[in-house]
Amino acid sequence: MMEDADVYIEDGIIKKVGINLCVPGGARVIEAKGKLVIPGGIDTHTHMQLPFMGTFAIDDFYTGTRAALAGGTTMIMDFALPQKEESLIEAYHKWRAWADPKVCCDYALHVGVTWWNNKVPQEMAQLTREHGVNSFKMFLAYKDLWQLNDEELLEAFKACKEIGALAQVHAENGDIIKENSKKLLALGITGPEGHEMSRPEEVEAEATMRACVLANQVGCPLYVVHVMSKSAADVVRAKRKQGCVVFGEPIAASLGTDGTHYWHKCWRHAAAFVMGPPLRPDPTTPNYLMDLLANGDLQTTGTDNCTFSASQKAIGKDDFTKIPNGVNGVEDRMSVLWEKGVVSGKMDACRFVAVTSTNAAKIFNIYPRKGRIAVGSDADIVIWNPHATRVISAQTHHQAVDFNIFEGMEVHGTADFVISGGKVVVEDGELKCVAGAGKFVATLPFSPAVYSRIENRDRVYAPRKVIRAPYDGVVTAMNVTLASVESQIDSGDTSGISSSQGNSFYGRGRRSVPPTSTSAVFNLHESTFSVAGDQPCDQSPVKRSSIKVNNPPGGKSAGSFW
Ligand SMILES: NC(=O)NCCC(=O)O
Ligand SMILES: [Zn+2]
């Protein structure tokens, strides 16, 4: 909703909203006529000072959050990413120790589930209960580093659901990437174009689909980070249309530029765009993603801000797999979104606020403290000038990195004033922020924007058994030893395989024994057994031991079968 009103702030909180407000004498007045007074942006996805690929991201929690404020973003959500076997709680504390003294704006943490054993879900629960973390990111990529296999993913999704957290996924198939990378390097393709060629769209789309299916099977809500391609976005859209609880996050890079840069003749230029999943060479991708964002098929915007300077990128000068992955965006996200989303006519100012701030606040359960201008909300406010223009450049940006992937782009929409926690930190374009002024924002589990639907779906789709009269006919005995079967076959008598004999079944390479029709058990290799449709054992419910009803009707529903 948009209204014409004044906003009065005291002690970092919005105290009044309305016309002709009565305010204490001496209160500072900032004139915003002709401009928009909007909630500060929330960047859902950053990696400040991430230790990664042999180096650290060059924008740390100070330069990164300072740049965020300059562009109208008043809160970032970063990721604590444990090394293999490292405690998730230790990683969380490590990130807090890095961020707390440096952040100029508020921040929250997602935590990565980068490995799995039975201690991990306990730590996830503790992080949710005691440390203000309500989202966990799992990687389907980065084989041998952070990648989980499908069984581990299922466990992680189940754990998220149990504790009311939102499962996030980096959706790319790491096994395929590894295989393709080897092939390309063997062909002598060592430059940044190899990065995109090793992980084309379908590699992202397959992983997106797999994550959606796995999460849906255990009734876990899912958030797909950095949606980079049309086909991955189509998966999110289709799954939402089918009723799955899934959210999609395109980023400033995927909305504002494309992957044609990987073929640029200057190595440094091409390497600057290397990130995972890659930007797509199809130049119609940004418009396509923006349309989905404008129309509600995608919900939030992040940046995946993870910056590396020229010399850091050059770690991979002879091998694209070694180029540190990551691009800028935290400073320019709001302007890129305004230019490509609003000025283009795809979305109005209200939708702009939704996708840059409010939707994130709702999904991550910090609404209406964040993402809204209302009495009681944090005074994180931007006075947005929709008419002013600027040209994005590494020469003038506030980030530490020496390259800007939006270099030369003229954008309308600038943050003339930025108020963070009630303090004016950008004034007519001038930055006045202080390291450590930002606060950690705890995010609580069971976000209503995410879990109210889950609870209802669990109830509606809870598995129910069919009530029927018990079967009272003859039941073939199952316990059979191979020796007894063989001796009976040798003697030509296959009629009386008895229950006192042990388990066995026919082996494919064995002597010419009859197929499973004469056996008391199924040989899956030889039978026509199918996981779909009627099974030969359908008449005998007691034998379908592989199907478990997790929650019998009447019991608590966890909705495992939808
Ligand atoms: N995305 C990227 O290229 N770098 C940061 C690590 C990650 O999110 O994958
Ligand atoms: Zn990321």
Automatic annotation (TrEMBL):
GO terms for cellular component: cytosol. Pfam families: Amidohydro_1 (PF01979). Gene3D superfamilies: Metal-dependent hydrolases (3.20.20.140), Urease, subunit C, domain 1 (2.30.40.10). Its cofactor is Zn(2+). Residues 490-501 have a biased composition (Low complexity). GO terms for biological process: pyrimidine nucleobase catabolic process. Residues 36-425 form the Amidohydrolase-related domain. Belongs to the metallo-dependent hydrolases superfamily. Hydantoinase/dihydropyrimidinase family. This is dihydropyrimidinase. It comes from Armadillidium nasatum. The lineage of its organism: Eukaryota, Metazoa, Ecdysozoa, Arthropoda, Crustacea. The gene is DPYS.
